[in-house]
Amino acid sequence: MVIKFLIFCIFTSLLSANLEDKIKNYMSASEYNKQENLIKILFKDSDKFYRQSDGNVDSLKVIKVLKENGLFKMFYKKPISLNIKFITDKNPLIFIKVISESLDAIGYNYFLTSKAQKTNDKFSWSINLQTEHLVNPIVFSQELLKRGCIIKDIIKEKKYNWTYKINSDNAKLNAKMIDLETTTKLTKPIEDYLIQNNNATSIKIRTSFSDHWYPKISFLDSSLHVVSEKNIDERTYVLKVDVPKDCKYIKIGDLYTLENIKHGLSVYMTKEEK
Q1: What is the pLDDT of residue 52?
Q2: Collapsing DSSP states into helix, strand and coil, what is residue 19?
Q3: Could you give the domains of the chain?
Q4: From CA 96, how far away is CA 113, in angstroms rounded?
Q5: What is the pTM of this model?
Q6: How far apart are CA 28 and CA 172, in angstroms?
Q7: Rounded mean pLDDT, 178-207
Q8: Which residues, in sequence order, are CB contacts of 93 under 8 Å at separation 6+?
Q9: Most CB atoms within 10 A, among 62, 80, 92, 104?
């Protein structure tokens, strides 16, 4: 009985230490020491901040409590160079696309890739942002969740260096689904259209007569690798193209500029029996 109690005490102290380390990671040493009493009150029910699935500290829950109590610094006095590394163990192309979409959704349209690396079963993508405020982990996690991804851990490496470990097992792109045998109008594009293939065997695309479309079409598989392409360097009004068997997504743009299709496109997809 005594041994069991000792084991329980050791286990509890280890949990507390892990949680304490995580909290300290998100705050400066001086801030932590200054607010130690408040922190003890906020995190007194320490077991609530651990995931039952793997026993690790839930970074988002910790950050949420710190942020709600003014203990998580989000803003800087002047623009800084923020470095963020994203790590996963799944398809790099879809992962990058999902991260980009999620960042764009919360207002981060411009960033530079500083490094992309695949080692064994891990892929990491590092970006640099010029910003006056930190990427909000809570809002960012919500956008990732919409795309089937879950944040496993958030680590503050240095003052302006952060690492996100992400589970992207169920990653899905923000691709438009178009019903078969139905003409769908696509509005003016901000970027190339990305359409999910609904088992179509052909796609017919029509442009406005006032536009000057030079077709650029890529047929992509489930990992976003190019299966085939169709590029036409002449003005086109109507184009019908067969959809390859292994096509999961269809990317539609213009060889030169999206201004050439500023009035949008009309798309008709069909599944023809062969």
Answers
A1: 87
A2: helix
A3: 2-68 (no CATH), 75-167 (3.30.70), 176-270 (2.60.120)
A4: 10
A5: 0.81
A6: 37
A7: 94
A8: 223, 224, 225
A9: 62
